[in-house]
Amino acid sequence: MNQTSTLRVRVRNIKDETSTIKRFTLESMDYSKLPPYSGGSHITTFLSLPSGTLERQYSLFNTTLEPGLFEIAVRLAEDSTGGSRFWHQNVQAGDALTVSFPKNYFPLSFQAKHHVFYAAGIGITPFLSMMAELAEKEHSFELHYAANSKEQCAFYEHLRTVYPDRCRFYFSNSEGTKRLSPKLLLDHRIGTHVYFCGPERMIEDFTNAAKSYGYPSFNIHWERFAPPVNREHKPFSVNLQRSGRQFEVPANTSLLDVLRKYGINVPYSCRVGGCGTCEVKVAEGEVFHYDSFLTEEQRCSKGIMLSCVSRGKGKLVLDL
Amino acid sequence: MNSMADLRAFPYPFGDSDVYRYSNNAIPLDPPNPIELTDSYFDEISLKRELLTKHPERCYHSAPHTLDAQWEVVDLIIDNLVTHYPDRFELEKKDDEWVFSNVQTNENITFTFGDSTSLKIEPLDFIGRHVQEDLLLMMQRDGNLFLDAGQLCFPANWSLYFDAGMSFKEIHSPIPGFKDQSLDDRILQFLMRIEAGSPWWRKNWSLLAGNRLDTSLETFADWGQARKRVTKENAGELVHLRVEVQKLFRLPKSNGILFTIHSHMLPLEKFVQHPPWLEKFYSILDELPDFIAGYKGISLYRKQVLEYLEEEMRKR
To answer: What CATH number corresponds to the domain at position A41?
Structure first.
């Protein structure tokens, strides 16, 4: 993350959406417009805590009628590791904060004939900006949204007012209403793209169901935020499988620098984990990935790492 | 401009290695300026406008879904111009009513931001006529990048007309060795992860027999023949090192990527005045594998250029 590319914002307004979800309206410090963003975008917020800076990602939307504002919704998590508790208990209207530029890792499909959103709980948030974009472009979409009750359903009135014919709500605590079920996926016409956001289990159930009903994986989308990164820089050692050489990587030095110091000519370019040029093959060992380049699948394959920013846990064996 | 000033302003394209291979050599762009004005500003924008008027089919292309992204480009570039060159460009804004002034060309253009009917030409075409850079718009659609719009007057031997609408990998498929070690996948992955507020840049180089900026594939017959006329004796004057400064910006509203290319050229006889550059370039050109030399259009006269460089090294 390039810290120079951040925005300073002020909290204009805080509103209780439900008993556990607050909506924060953010404005530019100099009253200019904040940057525009595409449907499905999020921002990283940087919270200054006594223990250090806490990075948290939140979907971006704007339910006000005024352009150039950012809004986020934060649910107070019972097992909060500090982020949501800080937002709920410490952040006040008028406070200044640092946030990233908008980023989008959950974009709308361009070629979809129809978009269907499935949200559970706070998982509604990325769909707010997606629906706003589709409504503006007059594209076809619908929302299926589950919450415990009408009272616990964030943005219920907003959604009913703005998209009256396109939303269906499912309340698990009310008698007589239907539950949100993956079987709904059977009712969409060919060319539909489906989007899921909610608890891990819900995403898994809906994704599996969609695949079993014959949806191409190209038409299935879901949002899962990266877990918070704890950038601890500890020393570790590397063994080079092919040459048998062995080096120590001190806490304040990168693996790339150590390899190059000993004459191993790893190509590199950006040195900030963004371009992918300094990738090395990992034969054994566990890696802390601090780059912004590799996909989740590439990380899970455990075969590669970017030597400029990522680090080993204890001992690494590289295929070099 | 004297030789030393030319040299100082020239974007030297080589790293610290004596060997050149294709790689992702991009680095973060700081300060994040998409545009740079040089001493040849007036000549180059005049040439661009002439080419756009005479050959619109090869210099401009756009798909209808790029209009929002085109307005983002206008916003980004005008903001950069009036901030960094306040003596040369002015902007008056009253809500969405904008008046953009180019002091040097004595033009004042009034338009409604976001309303394409308020301009005589498309937004990308309009703003491109005020900068030396070629402007290309890659739209991210369904997990891939496509060349969906562009204003291209100074291509280094490629065709916008031919590449329009193609994906990133389709456009680059003619490059020999570009798929080795999945370099094409890796660069596509890098591009798709570019974020708003964190632009990138890189330099690319080639040699040109002649000094034309408009070396489009369509006009190859006019300029490609000069490759056959290169000799050891005329290489210093005839052959130019051509460097493209390429910059990449994510456009946050449309999620597209703006790719700007600023082409710089220097005759070898000026380039070799700086001895470390001369030696490094000789090593790289001498070692350059045939498949890269072929793609960069150097094969026909590499021998003559090497002989010229050898002689220059002997003189020092």
So the answer is: 2.40.30.10
